[in-house]
């Protein structure tokens, strides 16, 4: 049942009644929501607007069948913006799951690599794609790396914080311990194929909240097994920053 948490949501519901009807159909029974924020946040580049965590929480809380909203995001220690997001999510009432972001120092030292070698490039480019490159492309890429070396750059920093194992485990654990009917995942990552497939095989209703061209082919294939994909563009007015509504 829809019970708007704010007057603004109530007014928007009056303007967009069909959207609320769609959401009520999705949240028709007891539901858990899993937000892979590292996957969701970059969607703004495609959408042209950002998901406001406060407005999202208020909107989701307006449906009384929502049981838990779990929020997964890594913490980059010492970075105020990263730590603020985690703190804000907790204060808003999300069930926050976090862990330190791994900082990896990766060598790009090509000083001893022949120009036509793929030895260093294979660390960054998957072999099936690398095999398609012409020798001129290989040589050009190696020259670019050596150019960086000449500028004194021999390493790059990569940040890693993947929650696919934790989210998949939590979904299956919730299936075992809670009387849930609906599992809603905010992500488009192919790593979730197996847990979603298992839930669908167990006759659970699984919905993916995502955006166009941000859903992997592996998850798209699960449509034939019952996966429903909901485009979050439909609920922009309810969940984006208010300053972005005019754009």
Automatic annotation (TrEMBL):
Domain (NYN): residue spans on this chain: 141-220
The entry lists its GO molecular-function terms as:
RNA nuclease activity
InterPro entries reported for this sequence: LabA, NYN
Lineage, top-rank taxon, reads Bacteria
**Name of the featured protein:** NYN domain-containing protein
* Naturally occurring in which organism (per UniProt): Candidatus Zambryskibacteria bacterium RIFOXYC1_FULL_39_10
